[in-house]
Amino acid sequence: MGKRLKEETRLRIVKEALAGVKVGVLARMYDIHPETIRLWIREHRDFIPPEDIPSADEHLQEIQRLQEVEQRYDRAVKALGEKELEIEILRELLKKTTPVYPKNSK
Fold this sequence. Notes:
The protein is mainly alpha-helical.
């Protein structure tokens, strides 16, 4: 029975991936290595009929919303990191008693 349940779980994850959920999101959701999920997709994708691939039901919509939130978060963290770096550079420049400015080479 454990093997059967495991196979059903594998198929559900593969179907969700085929429905458009990113492997990285599925890996975090189910705590499974992304390469394992990719292997399952390669093993099962040719045997899953298109009508068995879930449409945008509530569960998948929530996963896709989570995916979008993660992408926005990643972009925000990157932008914040860039701003913090700019602020640190400006602080270092303010500490200098005689800042060096590039001279015009005319």
